[in-house]
Amino acid sequence: MVGVAGAHGVKRIEIDYVLTVPVALRACFTVQGFTALLGRSGAGKTTLLRALAGLAPARGEPWQGLAPERRPIGYLPQQTLLFPHLNVLENTAYALKGRRRLEQAGTLLAELGLAALASRRADQLSGGQAKRIALARALAHGAELLLLDEPSVGLDSVTRDATLDWLVETATARGIPMLAATHDHEVATRAERLALLADGRIIQHGPAREVFSAPMGHAAATLLGYENIFERGDEVWAIRARDIRLDPAGERFSVLRVRELGTSLRLVCGPAPRLTVELPHGRAHDYPPGREIRLCLAAAARVEPASGT
To answer: Are 60 and 176 in a shared domain?
Structure first.
């Protein structure tokens, strides 16, 4: 199934692709709303996006055999690839045809709140502005799927959050699914759906809340940013350092190491399980090695057995 149409256009796209070069992988998952493809560097995320755009060899559906220019894809690589000698209006109109192409591009920029940038050259834009204009150009092309390669790269945290919010809100308002390849957990936490790529395959996928709350296997938990993965009886649990809190009624642990990190404090506690704990406040001298503290692990997620598919 290529996609399911809703009131505002294509809402869901089923991806089933096989790649052999430059990496071997099989990717089978659903893109719906804002979907994140989370994987380590070198896992094949960029190659998969390029394959979907028709820029890398692959077999699968949808769009197998279609030339890149015939695919309803808006591809935003890490470098936005805006034409530096053209201004924003001309960059946006590049994919349009006809005498009214500049007028149509101007209308789109106004709709997206970008009209004030229309006369600027691409090399006069900030990183966040360039990503916005790249999306505008993709929308002008009539994209039915937006592909974003590491959308947070090159942006500071404030610009990243504002840019991602804008990208997601814009695509959602137009009913266009968006697939973002990333290794950034902060990007993944914004997704409606999440696919985890490791060892040449999708090791888990589904609604993001479900994936985060029940990682399937050690590899999935590690990808999702759980610093602490430990066994209790016959079960495996995972918890992030920042989700462990001090609690007078909690379990007893001893401080093994302590380090100050800006405004927060990072502790290593033990003996079993050995946990990394991040406290939002405090000073290192308040938690000397050997001090006993009590910790609440209620936010731990149970790690499900890894899927063999």
So the answer is: yes
| Cα 33 to Cα 30, 54, 174, 179, distances in angstroms | 10, 22, 10, 8
Within-domain flag for 216: no
Listed residue (139, 210, 148, 131) closest to 175, CA to CA:
139
Tell me, yes or no, whether 195 and 236 share the same domain.
Answer: no
Q: Are residues 233 and 263 in the same domain?
A: yes
Characterize 18-30 residue by residue with b for buried, 16 or more Cβ atoms within 10 angstroms of its Cβ, and e for exposed.
ebeeeeebebebb
Domain check: are 247 and 295 in the same one? yes
CA–CA dist 5, 213 (Å, integer): 29
pLDDT band at 5 (very low <50, low <70, confident <90, very high): very low
* Distance in angstroms (rounded) separating the CA atoms of residues 56 and 71: 13
Contact 229, 222 (CB under 8 A): yes
Q: How many domains does the chain have?
A: 2
Report yes or no on 149 lying in a domain: yes
Mean pLDDT of 105-124: 91
> Do residues 88 and 170 share a domain?
yes
pTM (predicted TM-score): 0.86
Q: What is the pLDDT of residues 73-84, one digit of tens each?
A: 988 888 888 988
How confident is the model over 201-212, as pLDDT tens digits?
999 999 999 999
Domain membership of residue 62 (yes or no) is yes
With respect to residue 220, please indicate whether it lies within any of the assigned structural domains: no
Residue 232's domain spans which residues? 226-303
